[in-house]
Amino acid sequence: MAPYASDDSTTAAEGDDPRDDLRAGRRKAARYVVPVAVVGVAAATIGLVPAIADSGDPDLPEITAQQLIEKIAQSDVQQMSGTFKITTDLGLPDLGGLESSLASGAMGSGSGDGSSADPTAKLTELASGTHTLRVAADGPDRQKLSLLENAAEYSLIHNGKDVWGYDSKSNEVFHGTAEEARGGQEKEDVPATPKDFAEEALKAVDDTTSVTVDGTAQVAGRDAYRLLIKPKQSGTTVGAITVAVDAKTGMPLKFTLTPSSGGAAVVDAGFTQVSFAKPAASTFDFTPPKGAKVTEESELDGAAAEHGSAKSEDELRKELDKELGGLKSGDEHGKAREGGPEVIGEGWNSVAVFDTGGEGVPSGAEAGGDLGGFLDSLGDKVSGKFGSGTVFKTRLINALVTDDGKVYVGAVDKDALVKAANSAK
Predict the structure, then answer these.
(1) Are strands 293-296 and 172-177 parallel, antiparallel or unpaired?
(2) What percent of the chain has pLDDT over 70?
(3) Rounded to two decimals, what is the model's pTM?
(4) Could you tell me the residue range of the domain that residue 96 belongs to?
(5) Is residue 230 assigned to a domain?
(6) Same structural domain for residues 357 and 256?
């Protein structure tokens, strides 16, 4: 990780993108064994980590941004437990029953091909609303995450070679094997604390970014420094990212990402209680309850194959990692990396370009009925040198879909997307 020259100036981050080092098996393992991967659900879309709301103003020794970044990099917390809360507000429209239907179809209902205990689908619930979780970790081989719901609980446990998911509401169990998920490869470390996600945020920093220490805070009863990351460019939807860094351990405790448009945070995530004592070994024990339906990971993979999936989930994840990883590392026009998307612009104004090879999004009139009205409510019609298309907006990520099937996407506003499309080769 590149140091910063001073407390109020930055240089481009150096080093290879860590995604380059992730093998297929590691990606699949990380799906399940990361107790705080909840932060990544919202953050992975832009390769950034969210930041903080503070209480208190502890008196701590002065520290520069460079020193605080190095403190994060040197942090090596292996054992911890606590309560974690995440609120995500992307400003998506109310989908009513459609959202529930899609979630139900993705997870299954206890019969057929799916399982409500499958973590792949279950953790997508964290992409919207407010959720409370309990987390625990004891080194790279023992982690636990519990998602607390109304009169129910979902737990994801990694203990040695076993990965368990349990949905108390449906009394369903998912079982996978970490060694198999790694494809029999030599064991590798996977992200296991908010520190990993904070480092990803810092790797997105370049000379288009201001990085400073913005005072102190108290988070989960612990003294912390506030690291403030702000784009210098206009046109981005990112207003600021703040990371509360534990003054003693260097571990990021809480994160908040605020949009340039103002208002509530897009993501506010972090610990409300935390301990760095070794969790009891029994924390990671799990035995399927009597009468519970147990689904093996191999059964789900087999069901996907029977449905004629053109590409495996792991293959799709590889492609997504490659696409997202190149968003901030490309030239002004050109491929970000071999096999990645074309990238237009730089820094926070980077726009990734995909060619679907097909037609754009149908208009409301073309789609007809409720679907047509829904599509029209989501997008704004735009036109320019590129032709015409529709811009679909959230409070953070926006996308322009042209009528000829090109897609321009980034953490930028509508005008920046149109400008990128007009400048495309």
Answers:
(1) parallel
(2) 61
(3) 0.72
(4) 18-56+73-206+250-312
(5) no
(6) no
